[in-house]
């Protein structure tokens, strides 16, 4: 079906769950359709991963928030869409959809449009009618997000649930690098390590709640790794210092070797206030970690307390402390049971299955 042309669109630089999904979906969708990616100039991480996989089309000069006022970004994207003669354009983030919607009325030939909603935030009245009305389909990453949007009468007829997928060839239960990475991080053999993988956004990812819970854990031989964009920033380091946890919490910043950091760790913990499906949590489960997470977004659809991990309500630091204590006291048999169940759960979220659902959706909307 290479006669079907699909343009994936993403905005800005850096790496996060949205960028990870854009990369994986673009890569795997190219097995079914002629797929291209429109992205920012000098998006190093995406270029490194995809430059020899799919054609890359550059439209955005990322100069921070000012990029939205740069008319050249819009002109370049319009030309890409016109020249590419695409059947479908997929906007992988809210802001990339802003770009697409701005140029869409001026296109002579209008491709089908797919927008993404990765979180449970309900768009404003203005955004709903001036922006999302242009979408032929709106893909959400969990049934819970779809339910919330339907309850708010947010284009229920356009909503499609396609859960985010993870790369099971990368995230799997191995320990080849455990000793090497613990040594690199200065972690002793008898120390227990919790890992949190999330960009430093306390208002959304709840690092302040996590640090409060970890401090109250009062574990002398425990360490906490914070992994993600700006987790090594001055702001993050100040927050760690404010909790007096400088000797117990390590901010590692953005890393390309998350799967190896999982090997160095014993437990995964997520304290998010808002999520879609939480790919970082599924990656940890696929890696065989015993996990703990708040029930943000669609997490409760697959994470079941004391079955394949542990759960707490959003914002409940006392519960997080209590469950971390429970994790530390697991027997080897209990750890193995939870780990095995977590691995089996994560297998249902392979990127291959996600790509098949995208294939079916694209075929449906152009038929």
TrEMBL record:
Sequence ranges assigned to domain Glycosyl transferase family in this UniProt record: 178-344
Transferase listed as a keyword: yes
Domain called Glycosyltransferase subfamily 4-like N-terminal: residue spans: 40-170
This protein's record includes keyword Transferase: yes
Gene Ontology molecular function terms on file: glycosyltransferase activity
Xref: SUPFAM superfamilies: UDP-Glycosyltransferase/glycogen phosphorylase (SSF53756)
Keywords of this entry: Transferase
Record-linked Pfam families: Glyco_transf_4 (PF13439), Glycos_transf_1 (PF00534)
Protein name: Glycosyltransferase involved in cell wall biosynthesis
Organism: Hydrogenothermus marinus
């Amino acid at each position: 079906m290479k006669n079907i042309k699909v343009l994936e669109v993403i905005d800005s630089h850096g790496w996060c769950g949205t960028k990870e999904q854009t990369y994986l979906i673009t890569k795997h969708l190219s097995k079914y359709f002629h797929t291209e990616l429109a992205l920012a100039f000098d998006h190093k991480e995406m270029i490194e991963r995809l430059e020899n996989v799919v054609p890359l089309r550059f439209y955005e000069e990322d100069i921070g928030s000012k990029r939205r006022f740069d008319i050249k970004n819009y002109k370049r994207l319009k030309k890409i869409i016109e020249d590419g003669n695409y059947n479908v354009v997929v906007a992988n983030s809210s802001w990339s959809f802003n770009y697409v919607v701005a140029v869409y009325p001026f296109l002579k030939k209008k491709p089908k449009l797919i927008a993404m909603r990765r979180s449970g935030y309900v768009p404003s009245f203005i955004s709903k009618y001036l922006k999302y009305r242009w979408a032929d389909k709106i893909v959400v990453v969990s049934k819970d997000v779809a339910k919330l949007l339907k309850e708010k009468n947010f284009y229920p007829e356009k909503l499609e649930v396609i859960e985010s997928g993870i790369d099971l060839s990368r995230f799997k239960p191995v320990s080849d690098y455990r000793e090497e990475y613990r040594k690199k991080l200065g972690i002793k053999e008898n120390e227990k390590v919790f890992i949190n993988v999330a960009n430093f956004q306390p208002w959304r990812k709840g690092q302040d709640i996590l640090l409060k819970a970890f401090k109250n854990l009062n574990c002398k031989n425990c360490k906490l790794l914070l992994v993600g964009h700006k987790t090594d920033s001055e702001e993050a380091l100040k927050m760690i210092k404010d909790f007096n946890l400088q000797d117990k919490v390590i901010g590692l910043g953005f890393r390309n070797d998350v799967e190896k950091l999982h090997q160095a760790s014993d437990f995964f913990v997520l304290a998010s206030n808002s999520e879609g499906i939480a790919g970082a949590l599924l990656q940890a489960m696929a890696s065989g970690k015993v996990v703990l997470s708040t029930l943000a977004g669609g997490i409760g659809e697959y994470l079941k307390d004391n079955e394949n991990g542990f759960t707490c309500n959003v914002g409940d630091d006392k519960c997080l402390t209590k469950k971390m204590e429970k994790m530390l006291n697991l027997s080897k048999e209990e750890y193995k049971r939870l780990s095995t169940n977590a691995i089996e759960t994560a297998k249902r979220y392979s990127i291959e299955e996600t790509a098949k659902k995208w294939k079916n959706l694209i075929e449906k909307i152009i038929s």
